[in-house]
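Quick one:
INPUT:
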């Protein structure tokens, strides 16, 4: 019995985290496009940032719900070996992003927040994606590229790049993930 438990644990740890929900990503992408339009109507960068922060709070809730739903329908544990590794790799860059958002806001450097968000979100996706299906790290690299573009374009465009990247990339990668990996 000990040997069987060891084999099961080893197989579980070596597997890929497939509970990433493509349809959850599509939902977040659509919301990002709506948020981008709403944020563009704000008269100040601070107003636009507040709308994006609302999505930053809502998005993880949507994705966690979608992942739990997908894991349950596949009858697989969400926080198995690969799932735990995904969370442990994904979380630190996201925490750094939250901290830097506060620091950059206080310093009055709101125009670089979208680039920093895209870079750190991309970093989180690449790191977590190392334990997921192959397309996930590719998506992370695309987010990182969008972050570089956002940092080196005129500040007036940075929130538009955030909307295009966060919305477009989630939709563009979410659909193939949903189709190839069961939702």
């Amino acid at each position: 019995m000990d040997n069987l438990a060891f084999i099961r644990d080893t197989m579980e740890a070596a597997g890929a985290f497939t509970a990433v929900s493509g349809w959850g990503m599509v939902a977040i992408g659509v919301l990002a496009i709506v948020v981008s339009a709403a944020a563009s109507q704000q008269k100040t960068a601070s107003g636009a940032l507040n709308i994006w922060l609302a999505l930053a709070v809502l998005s993880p809730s949507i994705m966690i719900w979608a992942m739990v739903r997908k894991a349950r329908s596949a009858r697989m544990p969400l926080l198995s070996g690969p799932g735990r590794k995904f969370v442990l790799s994904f979380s630190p860059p996201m925490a750094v992003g939250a901290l830097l958002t506060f620091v950059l806001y206080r310093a009055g450097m709101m125009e670089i927040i979208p680039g920093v968000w895209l870079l750190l979100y991309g970093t989180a996706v690449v790191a977590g994606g190392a334990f997921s299906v192959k397309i996930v790290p590719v998506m992370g690299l695309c987010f990182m590229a969008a972050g570089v573009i956002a940092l080196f374009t005129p500040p007036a465009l940075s929130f538009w790049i955030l909307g295009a990247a966060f919305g477009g990339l989630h939709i563009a990668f979410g659909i193939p993930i949903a189709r190839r990996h069961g939702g």
